[in-house]
Structures
1.
Amino acid sequence: MKEDKENTRPKEKRVEIKCEDGEKTEKCKEKKEAMTKIVIRRLPPSLTKEELEEQLQPLPEVDYMEFFSNDTSLFPHLFARAYISFKNQEDIVLFRDRFDGYVFIDNRGQEYPAIVEFAPFQKTAKKRNKKKDSKCGTIAEEQLLFWTS
């Protein structure tokens, strides 16, 4: 009988990784950057970035911090979250020990136990400068030139 495509296991591929000394072996480990970005989930929906920073004090040195308020389209799960990238890996363990399970209380007195874990996507967003639109306001200028001539 033919096997179903859904039930068959994909063929395993052997990957050859070049080590620094030029050997090709499977035992050689790839160079990976250290995981330094964490996410704090299940924060109170009414929490603001300033309030979070106040509650996280003293905060070790960070490269990046981004706060996302609640999303009303996810109705029963209205939680805020924050992403933090630390400069030192040792600080992550201390931060996790301190804030994983930490109970945040919102302005109505409801309790929200937070979850601290590594962020699934370790890259950080780049700050991009918004360029001024060169065409902005040109219609009004054209109309003004038309009426004055």
2.
Amino acid sequence: MFKVLTRSCNLLLAQTIKHSTCTTVNLYSTIAAGALTRLKMSEEKPKIVFVLGGPGAGKGTQCAKIVDRFGFVHLSAGDLLREERAREGSEVGALIEDYIRNGKIVPVEVTCSLLEAAMNKSDKNKFLIDGFPRNQDNLDGWNRQMSEKVDFQFVLFFNCSEDVCVDRCLSRGKSGSGRSDDNMESLKKRIQTYNNDSLPIIKHFEELGKVKQIDASPSSDEVFSKVEEVFVQSGF
């Protein structure tokens, strides 16, 4: 009787140990799977939307609304360049000032380095890159330095007439924007640069089926209603 009871107890213990081991293994498997998922998430490439349009098209205004609604980080190539220009001790500040004041496009190596540094500092994974790429050299430089590191989504193109853009920029300058290029002389150069260099880039992305065009002439709220549709339809 005692032997039978002992064998029963041993069998029960063995089954308990077996069940416990399986549970532990399953638990470790679950933890490992979760860790792997987190690792994959952490290694996910940042999603990128390029925001393009003429000077005064309202890119900055609409980017601020997209940030609030969809949780993107807004990286303005122009703002990053102006911040670097103003940073004490900057080795490229004078060069940036010369390019901006004369309505020219800053060398791509400088802009890409500033954009990459800003993305690396962020804890988010969705970025609006405003005002870039602005010419073929920008695009080539981006492809060399960044294309393999990011998940490019589309170009958000704010299309606006030249007259509306000029009026907006001049009004912004009169309101104290603090921008050295919000004046008629710089605007003429910026618009010429945009027409000659940036529009072909937009055309390039259109041929790839990667442009979402928005009429930027109406009020900012009307424009954003169209922008919102684009982002919702794109899965954001």
3.
Amino acid sequence: MKIQQEVHNLLTGLGVSPGTFTGGQLAVTSPITGEIIANVRVTETPEKNIAAAHKAFLEWRSVPAPRRGELVRQLGDELRIERETLGRLVTFETGKILSEGVGEVQEMIDICTFAAGLSRQLTGLTLPSERPNHRMMETWHPLGVTGVISAFNFPVAVWSWNAALALVCGNSVVWKPSEKTPLTALATQAIFERAAAKVGGIPANLSTLLVGDAAVGQALVESSQVPLLSATGSTAMGRAVGPRLAQRFARAILELGGNNAAIVCPSADLDLTLRAVAFAAMGTAGQRCTTLRRLIVQESICDAFVSRLRKVFATVTVGDPREPNTLVGPLIDRRAFEAMQKTLETARSAGAVIHGGERVEISNWPDAFYVRPALVEMAEQSEIVRRETFAPILYVLRYKELNEAIVLHNDVPQGLSSSIFTTDIREAERFLSVAGSDCGIANVNIGTSGAEIGGAFGGEKETGGGRESGSDAWKQYMRRATNTINYGSDLPLAQGVVFDID
């Protein structure tokens, strides 16, 4: 069966109307073969979609939070039913291997479970008052329309991190997916509508899509009816979006660049480290914001460890992500491939020793871009190392003392994810301390890729500073009110102020 027909079958099976992905202006290409698999209709009036979502919010905000949680619970159940199908669609549209595609949908299920429980725990505080017969407390209220702009590499999981929390918090959601991956968004919207129908009484347009390029997403940035925008993408995108949101005093959750590093200490379990580094560097063909891009290895073990790593990089199976033995699928498109090659050439000019990085030709698929992951040995952390390239390139640097490694680790503009491999508790605790990693995520003896739903996800510095998913990230989707109740007959003023009138 041709890949286009299989994709169309998946879409219709998931409940997507053929009219939305045939005959439209936006051509969608599968990175597996490089061929066009759909032509999606572009949203022509995004402002109307936002206005409809605002109307839905005005109704939804008054629905009790546990009832809102029931919708998210039902969404999770529908995703369980469609886990394999939607996961396969993720693979077709992004080029991820099948286990990663299905794993992304599992992540959606997990955040729905988390958010459904959260719907009964949107707690405020009761605070002591300095005045007699007074009580202070804080309450949390729905904020408004939550805008979500997602990137191609996690086409559905990032939406779910935001949408599940936003919905239980009483908000509506308007989603602008990457123009490279709108099909999985159409499928997710169809699944959401199925869940809403089963629950019943859900406002129309509680979740809605904006399909198109950056100009369509601009409506979310500019609209006064969108008090919160969560945007995932490059640091350059964040620099463009952030000031515009700030100008109208909107909230921003920005998940931007990552230039993640791992430190390998002499005491590390090197078998464990090898597997962790391989997945962190090569998973999703190096196209994760949490991909491991810098490996800082203690000089006494560097040669032996890098020798083992070179063999893994040279022998890992690169190819069709639908095949069960494939571990590295294609880059998203030609532009990604050319950026990778340009970066490698710059590194080579700076004296780097490069292993791999070449294109892997797949017969009959001349428009697909498969590459051998690149292991790049560098003498120093030059400017090219400090700049993130969204491709499977792992730079190797050496260090003598741990303090030197931590300085190298932190000496990049980005601050998303990090890890250290050690069995020395002093080294581990130093890395996690205030004098250690400056990233939003700091791990010990696991890679930089992957974060469990229970923890807040996000980074510092040029990564943007936002947080999504677990912990208390829900507070970003609500507004806080501090309340003081006087249940006495007197009116004492705070701070001992006296203001008597006749």
4.
Amino acid sequence: MNLVPQRFIFRLGFASQTSSLKVNSIPSHGRRKLSTITFSLAAPKQSGEEVLVVVGGGAAGIYGAIKAKTLAPNLKVVVIEKAKPLSKVTTQFVCQNFWRGRCNVTNGHCPDNKILAEHYPRGHKEFRGSFFHTHGPMDTMSWFSDHGVALKEDGRVYPTSNSSSTIIDCLMSEAKRSGVLLQTGKVVTGASSTADGKFAVKLEKHSLDYVEHVEADYLLIASGSSKQGYNLATQLGHSIVEPVPSLFTFKIADLKLAELSGVTFPKVKAKLQLEGIQKNIPQLTQVGPMLVTHWGLSGPVVLRLSAWGARYLSSSDYKGTLCVDFTPDLHIEDLKSALSRHKSQFLRQKVLNSYPSEFTVVKRFWKYILDCEGICGDTLWSSISNNLLFSVASLLKDCAFSVKGKGQFKDEFVTAGGVPLSEIYLDTMGSRIHSHLYFAGEVLNVDGITGGFNFQNAWTGGYIAGTSIGNLAGVAYNRVNQKLYTKTFGS
């Protein structure tokens, strides 16, 4: 029998236990009519066996699946992933051209969990509680170390291999070892609760005309920022905060700036100004490294601003002004004094060929500053007026760039939005609407700034959800076996 073009409905893992076969004809919405092969499960399940379906094979989903299976070996754990498992581990949270290919496992800068929580534009209030106390950065580092991954730390935490494949290989190996089942190329398109408190889960393969209907005792939605997870959440009664991009670069309308592509600044102070925002928002001023690209500005300082300003930027159509202080450790009077001293020492030199060493900028950028002030590079220092020197100092301290939109590379993105944290219990990651329904990772209205914080949200949420499910499944298994023992041998 050629099974490929047909639709299947079966109880996951028990197809071999069927005792009857029924073939029905169902509509195919404009396509040819197809057959439904229904396997009825007359044979009983193994004693006490339950099923967990994990939607999404990313960091949160795989980590949660491993934890649940470890705590409850008799729990059948199946991860459904439409694409390549853990693919976002390679690209997520990596600044364009800054740390390409390195994998931020977590962040080692924040031993205080309350301080750690402050790195989440969405979630900083809720995460001040028990969330990271349950499984924080040190716990994550210990887990990977215990599973053979050597780590190093420079604030961010990386595998010593500098390769994200080390993390992927570790997780996939542990999932296989613990007995987690992984099914790829499938999409969970529907979920509903049944009369007996379980979940009816619908799976499809879009490349084929193929559908599975699976019954699950537990459901963990860890599908990242895909519409798939949001749709499932709404089907099960949850609301969704409208998703908008976070962690992106800025397009800048400045042809002269484009000539500086590749220039980096180890430390700048940048303030984002947007129309319609009158109140002072401290997080819209950030300090850190910045990179010039051929389309605009990038680097950690810009990505942090995009995260904290994600919703404001969305409502302003990603237009505003970025004011950059290129010498944040120097007062403007210090700059003026440095320029005056340099002028007096190098009267006969061209302004393009020398400038104060305190500025710690490259020559290409110095030329950009001179061009902005209309100063020809061949002009001698002796010809520069004090007023012009002060204008240069002012520009270095407050250089305004017109933001015209988001950058074009989506591999830096995470999403602000998703299931509100008010609709789940953070101590279990369980739904407040449905028992045995859990969420973890970016499907929730949580996002962090760059530096391993988004991964830590995935590890913590996955760990808590997996622990909750594993403990419940273990109790259920023991309860069933106790009943069988009592029935067989008496009390």
